[in-house]
Amino acid sequence: MVKKNKEKDIKEKDTKEQDIKEQLEQAQQSAKDNWDKLLRAQAEIENLKRRHAKDIESAHKFVLDKFVKSLLEVKDSLNMGMKSATEKTATVESIFDGLKIIDKVFTSTLKKFNVVEINPKDEIFDPALHEAVTIVEAPNKKPNSILEVVQIGFTLNERLIRPAMVIVAK
To answer: Among 15, 64, 113, 128, which residue has the least CB neighbours within 10 Å?
Structure first.
């Protein structure tokens, strides 16, 4: 009976030992799988970083592409205007009409790229958008109203690029 108990104890011990070994192998395999997943994830992150850096570099290089192409249309209009201004049949009126057309093309190009003019004639002076060139006595005007725009200002995507240069009433 003692012998049977010993054999039983040994079998149980062997079974427990076998279970522990299986659990250890499973844990080691799981750790190896997780390590592989970690390495793949790190490699993927590095690839994403490289791709992102390349995309940013390309964006910086070609961000002005469409804008420049649109400006070339304005340049072409200017060239045609200069060519027609040198013709014998050119008049001051026809040259002026051509300049108005070029201005229209240029203005529409600016609008296409969210460049907006600041032309504040008869508005109230706003130091965030306007730069006072001078202040003039104007008894028939409201104080701080803009009498004259010396130079039009511009915003790009609602961010001030150049303030409007103005003459302000005192």
So the answer is: 128
Element (DSSP H or E) covering residue 168: strand 164-169
Angle, helices 92-112 vs 65-85, to 10°: value is: 180
CATH of domain 114-170: 2.30.22.10
- The residue ranges of every structural domain in the chain are 1-62, 64-113, 114-170
3-state DSSP call for residue 155? strand
Q: Is the pTM of this model over 0.85?
A: no
- Closest Cα to residue 79, out of 64, 52, 98, 94? 98
Q: Helix %, strand %, coil % for the chain, to 5?
A: 60, 20, 20
Are residues 81 and 95 in contact, defined by beta-carbon separation less than 8 angstroms?
yes
Q: For residue 46, how far is the Cα from the chain centroid?
A: 24
Give per-residue pLDDT as tens, 94-152: 899 989 999 999 999 999 999 999 999 889 999 999 999 999 998 888 888 999 999 99
- Residues facing residue 154 across a β-bridge: 117, 162
Q: How many CA atoms lie within 13 A of 109 on its CB side?
A: 18
